[in-house]
Amino acid sequence: MSTRLREIATSAGCCVLVLETGCQPSTSIVAPDERPPAERCPVAVAPKPAPGSSSDRESPQLITARFNGSDRVTLTFSEGLEPPTQVNPRQFRVSEGYSTVDYSEGGYASAYYYDPAAHYGEELPLVFAAIEQPEPDQLTLVLNRPIPMPICETMRMAKEEAAAAAALADGSTTKIRRGLFLHYTQRGSVGIRDLASNRLDDFGGEWALDFGARDKRLTGKPPLVRFDLLIELDCPVPSEYVGPPGPS
């Protein structure tokens, strides 16, 4: 590091040339009841390994998830991923989740998971049938058919009711949440991995594993479910709905 000259004015009007040869720790004498002066030397911080490098040990993070049409969900990750050619699409699953918590009298909660199709009277469950990779850091999950439109109408009404209830300062002790949620489990194949082979962590894996369940109910003391740890999906807007192809 190059030497720098600094001019300091003294009380006698003289000037002293001080040589500074770089960063030096403080040598000031500090009384027991005084706070020591800040060091002039910054603490060295090891650089974070680049994603995909041989020293990368961090799992990929799911940043956003959104419907892209009525039968596709596009996921964007924090880094590039391995091609998902060996990944079972059913390691991902959608649920319609509903929970209510009454915090009065010690607290009581109930929660439900529904297969979105079964909840609306359809026999065939709604499952992911394929995975595509449009970009290195993106995956698109393809449903076996478009999401039932009544689900989105129900979600819209539920959010409007929740917003109206929140606007009423009535001191209610009941908290309700409802939405569409994405789940993922590592089990079933090699799973989603980044370019350093770090695996995507589970979120809501139990529902994804129990893919034969049409619904699931829980009751007891809160918290029963952690929707905040799942990925909530907004329904596609009506203009994005794409119906099945017509006859050729």
* SSE string: EEEEEEEEHEHEE
Instruction: Return the structural class.
Output: mainly beta
> What count of helical segments does DSSP give?
2
The unreliable regions are 1-21, 241-248
Q: What's the count of strands? A: 11
Largest sheet: 5 strands, antiparallel
Verbal overview:
The protein is 10% helix and 29% strand. It has 248 residues and is mostly beta strands. The strands form three sheets. It has a five-stranded antiparallel sheet with strand order 10-6-5-9-11. Strands 3-4-8-7 form a four-stranded antiparallel sheet, with no helix packed on it. Strand 1 and strand 2 form a beta hairpin.
At a glance:
The chain has 248 residues and is mainly β. It is 10% helix and 29% strand. The protein has helices at 149-167, 205-209, and strands spanning 4-9, 15-20, 62-67, 72-77, 92-102, 108-114, 128-132, 138-143, 174-184, 215-220, 231-233.
Descriptive tags:
disordered N terminus; mainly beta; four-stranded antiparallel β-sheet; single chain; 11 strands; about 250 residues; five-stranded antiparallel β-sheet; 2 helices; disordered C terminus
